[in-house]
Every structure is written in structure tokens, then in C-alpha cells.
Write a structure and sequence with these properties.
Blueprint lengths: L1 H43 L3 H8 L14 E3 L6 E2 L6 H9 L7 H11 E3 L1
Antiparallel strand pairs: 1-2, 1-3
Length: 117
């Protein structure tokens, strides 16, 4: 049993040495690759700034959020998109018996008295 534990300890030590050697080899390889790239750029008359965007383009921008816009059916010049409700909308809702503070009433008003533009 003792021999097996000692052998496992030896293997763990060997593994640690190999992992360190691998890490060092990666650092050296990376340095070599960077040097080769710099030489290639110089030989062909390019700079890293000219080539890098072609190799690793920036991530595409997220599309802008699009918010629905509504217009009154009887007066399309009165529109509402989002945010604070305009006074005319509150007045129109109250005129038909709906409470502008209630989400259900706002949804009902938009579906019955407004059109999506």
C-alpha cells in the first residue's frame, strides 16, 4: 500500500513538471509566432493596424431596440411610443372611462383607440 502511495506522489510530481514544461513551451511558441507575423508584415509592407482588423474583426454591434409607436385612430398626429403618457392620452383615456395608471386599461386603450404605426 505504501509503495502505491509513493508511486502516486511521484506521478503527481511528474505531472506538475510536465504541466510547467508545457506552459513554458506555449510561451516560447507564442513568442515565435509573434516574431514570424511581424517579419511577414514587414516583408510585405503592412502594419499590424492594417491587418489585425481583417484577422479579428470587432464583434457586431447589438441591434438597437425598437419600440412600438401608436397613433390615435381619429387623429394620427397624436402618437405615443413609450415613457410618460402625454396629457392628451390621459384625457382621452379618462373620456372613455379608462384609468391611465392601470396597465390593463392602457393596453385596452391602445388596442381599441390607437393603431400601431
Amino acid at each position: 500500500m505504501k509503495e502505491i502511495i509513493e508511486r502516486l506522489n511521484e506521478i503527481d510530481a511528474e505531472k506538475a513538471e510536465l504541466e510547467a514544461a508545457l506552459a513554458q513551451a506555449k510561451v516560447e511558441m507564442r513568442s515565435s509566432i509573434v516574431e514570424q507575423i511581424r517579419d511577414l508584415l514587414a516583408e510585405n509592407g503592412y502594419t499590424a493596424d492594417e491587418i489585425l482588423p481583417l484577422v479579428a474583426p470587432a464583434e457586431p454591434a447589438k441591434p438597437a431596440r425598437v419600440f412600438l409607436t401608436y397613433a390615435m385612430k381619429d387623429d394620427p398626429s397624436k402618437t405615443y411610443s413609450r415613457g410618460v403618457q402625454p396629457g392628451w392620452m390621459k384625457d382621452a383615456m379618462a373620456a372613455v372611462g379608462l384609468d391611465p395608471r392601470m396597465g390593463e386599461d392602457r393596453t385596452k386603450f391602445k388596442s381599441e383607440y390607437m393603431v400601431q404605426v
